[in-house]
Amino acid sequence: MAHPLTIHGRGTPVNPANRFDPVEFHVDGDWLDLPEDERPAPTTQFLHDTSRTIIASNDSPDVGFTHSINPYRGCEHGCIYCYARPGHEYLGFSAGLDFETKIMVKTNAPGLLRKELASPKWVPQTLSMSGVTDCYQPVERRLRITRRCLEVLAEFRHPVAMITKNHLITRDADLLADLAKDNASLVMLSITTLDPEVARVMEPRTSSPRRRLDAIRTLTAAGIPVGVMVAPIIPGLTDHEAPAILNAAAAAGARWAGYTPVRLPWAIAGLFEDWLARHFPDRKDKVLNRIRSLRGGKLNDPNFGTRMQGQGVWADQLKAMFDLAKRKAGLTEKLELSPDHFRAPNAPNPPDGQLPLF
């Protein structure tokens, strides 16, 4: 898979074979012999997604939500570890560079959302945005699909929880603050490292760590409950930063924290190994061995109950360290949302009580 080529602003320069496709394409040409700074950079393509529904459901016991909205498939942020990468293979693409450069756009998402929320069959419950790919990736600044979905949610007074790595979410602080008045919105900022150089190669088109902390401050000042997700924690590379991340997030106004250790399903394992060899060759073996120690000797554990937390001695130590750092930082508040103010024609009465999340 590996090739000496690197591409500025991309998580990976390679496209591993699609596990569902027997045909594999190999790029060739004289341009490969050019110096790296003279090679044409791949441009991002935005393709129309023809989905007929927008609310997806899951029955996983390992995530804090059962229903989610994802306006985009694929993500230009290019995070090398992203667990959503293999999903691009179902579309006939690669989990590698294709995932970052071929983005499926659900232009009709706001209309679909309005239709589904207005259905008499819909029971209001917390909707997660960015449950798979980031709904505030760069193109959202121009397309505003996420904002238009939030406008529908605000009209219906429907509870929504958002997680993102992008400062762009502050653009929509007005809508999120409006929903927060009815205890119907919360935001999680995902912060994996405070080191801008690590972030630059690991999450090349996300907001910098400093900008994510700025987003926490801005949203908190607007009256929106905010938490921090240290996800994923990469043992041997970023795990030592968790206490500092939690302290910085708490100082910025975060009220709650969570984490997950890195998991590397399907093609991500090879992509991640190649990435380590390019950027952190001196730590490659240490990082991979630590991940295996969390994952029963493998680079991925797909089993419910352990896939989000890991298992074994290293997993226990990671949890103990994180829980202690979270308590010291004061990030122990339980964030809950309410459907009590939901309103829609012919909608069922909302269930009583609070909706737990994360």
Provide a brief overview of the structure.
This protein is α/β, with parallel strands linked by helices and 358 residues long. The protein has eleven helices and twelve strands.
Structure description:
With 358 residues, this protein is an alpha/beta fold. α4 runs parallel beside α5 and α8 packs parallel to α11. The strands form three sheets. It has a seven-stranded mixed sheet with strand order 2-3-6-7-8-9-10. β7 (160-164), α5 and β8 form a beta-alpha-beta unit. The two termini are 36 Å apart. The chain has eleven helices and twelve strands. The radius of gyration is 20 Å and the shape is globular.
Distinct helical segment count = 11
Element string (H = helix, E = strand): EEEEHEHEHHEHEHHEHEHHHEE
Give the strand line-up of the largest sheet.
Answer: 2-3-6-7-8-9-10
Classify the beta-strand content into a percent band. Answer: 5-15%
Distance between the termini: 36 Å
Compute the gyration radius: what is it?
A: 20 Å
Low-pLDDT ranges: 352-358
Proportion of helical residues = 25-40%
Q: Note the main sheet.
A: 7 strands, mixed
| Secondary structure tally: strands | 12
State the oligomer.
single chain
Structural class: alpha/beta
The coarse silhouette is globular
